[in-house]
Amino acid sequence: MTTYKNIKGIEIKYLSADPPAPTVGQVWYNSTTKVVKGAINGVGAWASGGALNTARSSLGGAGTQTAGLAFGGYNGSASTGDTEEYNGSSWSEQNNLNTARYAVVGFGTQAAGMAFGGISLTGKTEKYNGTSWTEVNDGNTARSRPGSVGTQTSALIFGGYTTDYVAVTESYNGTSWSEVADLNTARAGLGSLGTAAAAIGASGTAPVTVNVESWDGSSWTEIANINSARADSGSAGIQTEGIIFAGERPGPAGGDAAITEAWNGTSWTEVADMATARFNVARGVFGTSTLALAAGGYRASPGQSNLTEEWTVTSFTTKTFDTD
After folding, report:
1. Contact criterion met (CB below 8 Å) for 269 and 261
2. Contacts of 232 (CB under 8 A, 6+ apart)
3. CA dist 304 → 217, 275, 296 (Å)
4. pLDDT tens figures, 256-293
5. Domains along the chain?
6. Of the candidates 33, 154, 222, 276, which lies 20 to 30 Å from 52 by C-alpha distance?
7. Which tens digit of pLDDT belongs to each residue from 44-97?
8. At 7, which helix (H) or strand (E)?
């Protein structure tokens, strides 16, 4: 007989009451009610958050919904090095990047963030310690709008734009960048999920594509396409569970998008739209599949945005079967 332990390799926990804050995927047996229960994703929705102090697009982002970091970008007239921290309700200004730039990307956390690339085709890399930015070793290929995942000690940059779209992937070890295997499809403005060892690069432009690729630590493999092709979208989550949101859609009916798609490790599903369509929102892995952040961006009207939206998915328990 097939059992849960045979399938998952672990036994179901035997509890007298439901856990107060179960994680998605957690399964347990409630000995009081005599049923097996599990925590699953509920309905996700976007809600308004605190506005950025500086309206801008093409900025970098890192961290979480309650401890976010936004930096760089274009303020409508020039590149900026402005850095702001988010505490779950409001943004506060911090020390600027050393090099003002837009089309920059981020990765890491609020207290240990990283900024890479940007206009004018720079490979400059800076790290943030929660107070100030310090320049570290440049990337090998100067570029703007790549995909980005990782931490200050282990990161991955892929794709982007130089004088053309590139497929170049570089790995960061906390000190220097090394070229590794290229993407299958050269492009810029990808949505990014995961870590340096297990990443997703989704959609992007070269021209705008629905292609999605998965990184296993040594090479890229094409996997299930996203439903709505777009470039310069926001993203949050890991290789097996994440979301891609906003972006610029192609064609006469294109323009800024409010579309959100959820990834379950196998396929993409359209979920609740953002309240405000836009593209060039803060780019990097900005939160998780259930608690994400969208900051800034560009709107067809009035232009540079200071809007912040928070994505939240509720978790709830469901009875699987009775044991009586």
Report:
1. yes
2. 58, 145, 189, 205, 247, 248, 279, 280, 281, 283
3. 36, 16, 7
4. 899 999 999 999 999 999 999 999 999 999 999 999 99
5. 43-313 (2.120.10.80)
6. 154
7. 999 999 999 999 999 999 999 999 999 999 999 999 999 999 999 999 999 999
8. helix 4-8
